[in-house]
Specification:
Elements: E1 5-18, E2 22-35, E3 39-43, H1 50-57, E4 65-70, E5 73-74, H2 81-87, E6 88-91, H3 104-114, H4 119-132, H5 148-160, E7 166-170, H6 178-195, E8 198-202, E9 214-219, E10 222-227, H7 229-232, H8 236-241, H9 248-258, H10 270-278
Parallel strand pairs: 3-8, 3-9, 6-7, 7-8
Antiparallel strand pairs: 1-2, 1-4, 4-5, 9-10
Helix pairs in contact: 3-4, 3-5, 4-5, 5-6
The structure holds adenosine-5'-diphosphate and magnesium ion (MG).
Length: 279
């Protein structure tokens, strides 16, 4: 495995045993390499296998067949699990399920405390993590009284305090209002761009994937499409066939092109569109 890869799936398959239906393959033949420092968005309809894949990235689930490596470590080897979970931190959908303490700072300290770190190191990590997510002012607050977006930023700080190389977020904005979604997305983008943390963002909001370096689209447990946002989003019809809508700007550009307006298909932002139309 190349040192630039942080996650590599080779022929990864996952089978669940369903009580009523017998065996069910939730993932099939997944081949995927994620580079250090990359921002990858994983999209796909409900039930396409996104959460199952995410759980393989930090050894919460193990391959039924094929292999999954994190930092070159095979998740099948239990001796690697501690190190893998240190490298790849997870943030889940429901912020309320992730709160474990009665103040924000205690909540963020929970992970590092479990690592058995000295108190001074814990304090430093907590302060740093809360600064990065912009929640320092809320240190002494009760987490359950915060807004949804603030709670998710605290959850992200809790994972950051473990100093992971890779952050995996499984629909972290699904339960948030538009403002909370924006806060979380801005935080995640900044972590990737400024702190160099590898980000894997699972989302069903297409516009959140515009900021990613690469997009992976799952369908029935297989990779249906993979590429940069500029490569994927202009494929409006294929996305529709997968039950996904392209971001509004990509759809508008598609309509304009169909109506005969001369525009490049790869436009993804209002600014790019304005620039093209005004030139
Ligand atoms: N613990 C489980 N036992 C049996 N089937 C499961 C389990 N978890 C998920 N599945 C099934 O696997 C498929 C993929 O689920 P999931 O990975 O949660 O998809 P997504 O996150 O894309 O919605 C679904 O059909 C789901 O019903
Ligand atoms: Mg899911």
């Amino acid at each position: 495995m190349s040192p630039i890869e942080i996650i590599k799936a080779v022929g990864l398959g996952h089978r669940y045993e369903k009580e009523d239906e017998g065996e069910f393959w939730a993932l099939r033949e997944i081949n995927l390499s994620i580079k250090r420092g990359e921002f990858v968005a994983i999209l796909g309809p409900n039930g396409s296998g996104k959460s199952t894949l995410a759980k393989h990235f930090n050894a919460l689930l193990l391959p039924t067949c094929g292999e999954l490596y994190v930092n070159g470590l095979d998740t099948k080897d239990e001796n690697n699990h501690w190190q893998i979970r240190q490298s790849a931190g997870m943030v889940f959908q429901n912020p309320d399920n992730q709160i474990v303490a009665t103040t924000v700072e205690e909540d963020v300290a929970f992970g590092p405390e479990n690592l058995g770190l000295p108190a001074s190191e814990i304090r430093q990590r907590v302060d740093e993590a809360l600064t990065i997510v912009g929640m320092s002012a809320y240190k002494k607050h009760a987490p359950h009284l915060l807004s949804g977006g603030q709670k998710q930023r605290v959850a992200i700080a809790g994972v950051l305090a473990m100093r992971p190389q890779c952050l995996i977020l499984d629909e972290p904005t699904a339960m948030l209002d538009p403002r909370g979604r924006r806060e979380v997305l801005e935080t995640v983008t900044r972590l990737n761009k400024e702190e160099g943390i590898t980000v894997i963002l699972i989302t069903h909001f297409m516009e959140e994937a515009v900021a990613a370096d690469r997009i992976v689209i799952l369908e029935n447990g297989s990779i249906a499409l993979i590429g940069t946002p500029q490569e994927i989003f202009p494929r409006v019809n294929e996305l529709q066939a997968l039950g996904l809508a392209a971001p509004p700007i990509a759809e508008l550009v598609n309509e304009l092109r169909l109506a005969g307006v001369d525009l490049p298909p790869s436009i993804l932002t209002v600014d790019e569109l304005v620039e093209q139309l005004c030139c």
